[in-house]
Amino acid sequence: MGRVSDAEADDTGESVPWLEHRAAEDEDPIRITLERLPFRIGRASEADFVIHSTRVSKEHAEIDRRRNTWVVRDLGSRNGTFVNGERVTEPRRLRPGDVVHVANRSFSFHLGRATSQRDDATVLGTSGGELVGVRDLALAISQRRVHAVFQPIVDLATGALRGYECLGRSDVPREIGEPPRSIGELFRSAEAQGRAAELSRLLREVQLADAPLLAGDGLRFFLNVHPAELEDDSLIDALAEASQRVGRGRLTVIEIHESTITDLSAMGRLRERLRERAIEIAYDDFGAGQSRLRELAEVPPDFIKLDLSLVRDIDQSPARRDLVAALTRVMRDLGIRVLAEGIETQGERDVCLEIGCELGQGYLIARPARVSSGP
After folding, report:
1. Would you give the distance in Å from CA 322 to the centre of its chain?
2. Residue 243: is its pLDDT beyond 70?
3. Disordered: where is this region (predicted)?
4. N or C end: fewer C-beta atoms under 10 angstroms in the chain?
């Protein structure tokens, strides 16, 4: 199903292929026009879209046109390329709306007429992109041109506030009259320059400065940790300090992307050291790409956060609904609490509650906001 034969062809005319990519759940998507074919995704700097992750191969996947049909091909990657959750083992036909997963990144495929709309993607690997990235990242870090925003997390059954995810926004300008660069762009630049841990620490600092201003006892504050920080010996002490700064009677939850959990022994030791300091762990973006149940069984977190690709339109997908329902049953048996991210409609919220998701966050509930504007 979805495989390409030489006889298959679509009349795409002069339609322009493009990918929609969201660097983070709370950010607006960016549009990436596939101007050069084949369009390659990988870790190497010469790729058309660079992902700086150890889970991504140097040459990971490519999108190309075969006759009048668009296809995606895995380039022998170690961790695989997926379309709509199914691993690509041979060239696979792409249809509008299909979602391609590479590690923890997802790209939805579209066809449309050429427009004057400027793509928002900053693709590192070109000299111009790298120069802009160096300048803007230096400005963000040296002048602290970032600020904190907080997105409420609620009990889906009662609507009661249970905590906040602490997020960051960039104040680095593009051009006069244009919006600031996204935090995703800054992180892509930071990863290319080896400064991702530094940027992550800066964001946590501004978040912790504002978190005590939010009213409420017994709340949990979900803080993101970049994979580059996991090798830092000072991380535990920094997180212990963060836990004290959120305020008395509050808890700290550290979000770790599930794709970075490759050394179970090391993750087990990290979990125990955090628990000694009353700090909890959440596996973030669970379901993006190749999620693995072994990690859940051997090093169970306190929470899993379902990726938005599982939550989006779940009320319209019986198969995905059954899959997530089965997953939540397993989580309950393991004592893991399930949080659904990216809830945007009442239908999504109703189904997530019905199938066992205890907590939720998303635009339907509340958008991320600064403390001064009241999350």
Report:
1. 23
2. yes
3. 1-22
4. N
How big is the chain, counted in residues? 375
Question: Residue 224 pairs with which residues in a beta bridge?
Answer: 255
161-170 and 146-155 strand pairing? antiparallel
**Which residue shows structure tokens 């790409």?**
289
Whole-Å CA distances, 44 to 37, 38, 326, 342: 17, 15, 38, 31
Looking at the fold, whether 163 and 279 belong to one and the same domain comes out as yes
362 vs 375: CA distance, rounded Å: 12
**Distance, CA of 26 to chain centre:** 9
Measure the CA–CA gap between 302 and 358, rounded to whole angstroms: 13
Looking at the whole model, is its pTM more than 0.70?
no
Domain edge (last residue) among 47, 80, 111:
111
Can you give the CATH number for the domain in which 66 is found? 2.60.200.20
CB contact set of 55 (below 8 Å; sequence gap of 6+) = 78, 79, 103, 104, 259, 260
209 and 240 assigned to the same domain: yes
Please give the helix or strand (H or E) that residue 179 lies within, else none.
none
Distance CA(31)–CA(21), nearest Å, equals: 6
Claim to verify: residue 205 and residue 346 sit in the same structural domain: yes
- Across the chain, the runs of DSSP E, i.e. the strands, are 16-21, 30-33, 39-42, 49-50, 61-66, 69-74, 81-83, 86-87, 92-93, 99-102, 105-112, 146-155, 161-170, 220-224, 251-257, 279-286, 303-306, 337-340, 359-360
Closest-CA residue to 146 (of 202, 223, 90): 202
